[in-house]
Amino acid sequence: MKINEKNMVAFATSATPVDREGWLNKRGELNRGYQRRWFVLKGNILFYFDRRGDKEPVGMIVLEGCTIELAEDEEQFGFQIVFHGPNNRNYALAAESQESMEQWMKALACASYDYMKLMVAELQRQLDAAEEETTMVMAPAQSPKAPPRQRHNPFNRSELHHRSQSVRSAPGRTENVPRTRITFRELHNMYGRRILADLNEWRHTRKTVEAPLISF
Question: Where do the segments described as Disordered lie (predicted)?
Answer without folding.
Answer: 139-175
